[in-house]
């Protein structure tokens, strides 16, 4: 009677129920998860194609944003998770007591940034860039789970090479290293560098300007 399955009211109703149940499953699993959940795993749970899961998560994310919720559904580190809305940051910061979470020191941030942009990279190479020994800082980053050993340098000594982890992506709230801002965004324009050099240049004439 119905040549096209999509014209069958029963088929449409069944598909609607499956989609509704899939949405509830995704919400429940992401609410319970502590780490981002890969779309492939969600697809296995609800027995739907990965593309359908990604579309469903996109729909949920749009609905939450349109409703003005205090949380968002976002994709980070190759998976999906709930996290607080960026607009709520001041309130979340007030909620989290000062000192409750140990913060990285400036040297640790600098070292982590170098690894993020130059990986894979050895300890000696990092030390050469920073101009100081980084052994203790690397130990801190390893304990935090932000970096890990990714291999050995094939050259003499076979130095350990370091790279960032999935935990690093999660903390930054990005899906992959390709989402890191270009280094050019942090480098002054040539005219700015030139102006700084002129301002810092020592004059050959020791007498003060009139």
Structural summary, described in words:
Helix 1 (9-32) crosses helix 3 and helix 5 (106-118) packs across helix 7 (135-144). The termini are far apart. It is globular and about 65 Å long. By secondary structure, the protein is mostly helical. The protein has a three-stranded antiparallel β-sheet. 50% of the residues lie in helices and 12% in strands.
Topology as H/E string? Answer: HHHEEHHEHHEEHH
Which CATH-level-2 architecture of the largest domain?
Orthogonal Bundle
The CATH class label of the largest domain is Mainly Alpha
Find the CATH topology of the largest domain: Arc Repressor Mutant, subunit A
Average pLDDT metric? 81
- Write the CATH homologous superfamily of the largest domain: Winged helix-like DNA-binding domain superfamily/Winged helix DNA-binding domain
Total count of helical runs of at least 4 residues: 9
Annotation keywords:
210 residues, mainly alpha, Arc Repressor Mutant, subunit A, three-stranded antiparallel β-sheet, two-stranded antiparallel ribbon, 9 helices, 50% helix, globular, disordered C terminus
